[in-house]
Design brief:
Keywords: Membrane, Transmembrane, Transmembrane helix. By secondary structure, this protein is mainly alpha-helical. It contains eleven helices and four strands, in the order βαααααααββααααβ. It has a domain of 157 residues.
Length: 368
């Protein structure tokens, strides 16, 4: 006699999604009021705001913020929706996750990753060193290298300081706008998580589909992980051409036309994309569940599931939410090469599927 596998998320996961949706809906009301009371200075009137779809001119300016307020009020009820009302939460996920989002969050996230790459490279030797003495020696070697780069003029730390000052001022200038953009993407992710929870919890005593069993999830999760990895290659490899005399930026470009600052940022962005692609594979291989042998202190120990699931889910939500705005922007700017260089429309869902499979295998979504 055989039994069908049944799959359900932990109850606390579904409860967390419902609470997050409720709190997000609460914040929708003041955001809508902000735009309604300050139509010129509101977050949806910022110079950087470039909506995927624009409303007809006949629609009054107050209609959109009023609709946002109404959606926030309705969301307070939808957050406690029964499983059969999952189409409503799915609608929230699509509207806020894909229709109201813009490309600003992905640009902001990309530059943050590029900024962190040099810091990570500098920290890796210290992290891999064995023992206190080894770490001190590695830290001293890294510090000596940084000093040498400054003294030889390879790195102009004064210029780096000026750049960071300029970047900080720009971030402060657009901080409120960017915060609202992140809020929109977070809303899409929260409502998508609640929808998934309702779908899985709404099965009652019926057996879950066989593909949600851990052994099945391992197979389709591996395909999803490799798909996500492949999506990281176009942009990462294009940026790696900047290390050669045959640079490519959507077309051949004389390397002399790329100034050093642009070259450094481009390469950092490329390395960030490739590193993210490699981390996608951790969702399906052993080093994603147990720390590899070359990691000091923690080697061989289980990787905490949330350490992989939380950032992977965040990135998957971000990529999925910006996919439609990014394609629309590429078409408007007649830059169709960006559609294949940044395949977020495949990358985000593939990474999300890989993360779900990983969560099933690690028991965060339980199969029994």
């Amino acid at each position: 006699m055989t039994t069908e596998p049944t799959t359900q998320p932990r109850k606390r996961t579904g409860r967390a999604a419902a609470i997050a949706a409720f709190l997000w809906s609460l914040t929708a009301v003041p955001v809508g009021l902000w735009q309604l009371l300050d139509p010129e200075g509101g977050p949806f009137s910022h110079e950087l705001y470039e909506p995927t779809f624009t409303l007809p001119a006949a629609v009054p300016a107050w209609a959109a913020p009023a609709a946002l307020i109404a959606a926030g009020v309705l969301g307070l009820l939808a957050a406690r929706a029964r499983p059969r009302l999952w189409p409503l939460t799915a609608l929230y996920a699509v509207v806020f996750g894909m229709l109201l989002s813009t490309t600003s969050p992905i640009a902001f996230a990309g530059y943050i990753c590029a900024f962190l790459i040099p810091l990570v490279v500098a920290a890796v030797p210290v992290m891999l060193a064995r023992g206190t003495a080894g770490r001190l020696v590695a830290a001293a070697a890294v510090a000596a290298l940084l000093v040498a780069l400054g003294l030889t003029g390879v790195v102009d730390y004064a210029a780096v300081g000026d750049f960071l000052q300029m970047l900080g001022a720009r971030v402060a200038e657009i901080g409120a706008y960017m915060l609202v953009q992140v809020w929109i993407v977070a809303g899409g992710a929260i409502w998508a998580a609640l929808t998934l929870s309702l779908l899985l919890n709404g099965r009652g005593d019926r057996p879950a589909p066989a593909w949600l069993a851990p052994e099945r999830a391992a197979r389709w999760g591996r395909a999803a992980s490799w798909t996500a990895f492949a999506c990281a290659l176009p942009y990462g490899l294009v940026r790696m051409t900047w290390l050669t005399p045959w640079a490519w930026t959507g077309g051949p470009l004389d390397s002399s036309m790329i100034d050093p600052a642009t070259r450094v940022w481009g390469l950092c962005l490329g390395f960030a994309a490739l590193a993210g692609g490699v981390l996608c594979l951790g969702m399906t291989y052993r080093w994603g569940t147990r720390w590899p042998f070359w990691m000091p202190v923690v080697k061989g120990r289980p990787v905490p599931p949330k350490l992989a699931i939380v950032p992977a889910t965040t990135v998957a939500a971000l990529f999925t939410c910006v996919s439609l705005p990014f394609v629309a922007l590429s078409i408007r700017q007649d830059a169709l090469e960006m559609v294949w260089a940044f395949p977020f429309y495949v990358w985000g869902p593939a990474l999300g599927a890989a993360t779900l499979a990983y969560a099933i295998r690690r028991g965060v979504v339980e199969a029994r």
